[in-house]
Specification:
This protein has 99 residues and is mainly beta. It has one domain (4-94). The protein contains 2 helices and 5 strands, in the order E-E-E-H-E-E-H. The longest helix is centred in the middle third of the chain and has 8 residues, at 47-54.
Amino acid sequence: MLRYSILASAVLLAGSPSYRILRLGTKRILGVEERSDRLTGFSGMPQYLRDTIDLGHKEIRADFLVCPFTRSQPAHMQMVCVDTATHIESRHARFFGPE
């Protein structure tokens, strides 16, 4: 499977898929595949990244190594899984102020 590295921000949003990756410097949004009917115990994002987002960090900026599940097409969200992330920076919800 072809993997590639991108500088991006991972966020948790309403809708499906819940976890999305916003590629910095572009308008491209990647959707993180959350489950697989073919693979038992599959996770589209490492547990440490999901835990960080679930603890109230609204944005995680990092170099993500992603594996595409679908082809890149204009005006369509490409589905990927995250293999790993390095150079991680996160911002807690308090950083953004009250909603």
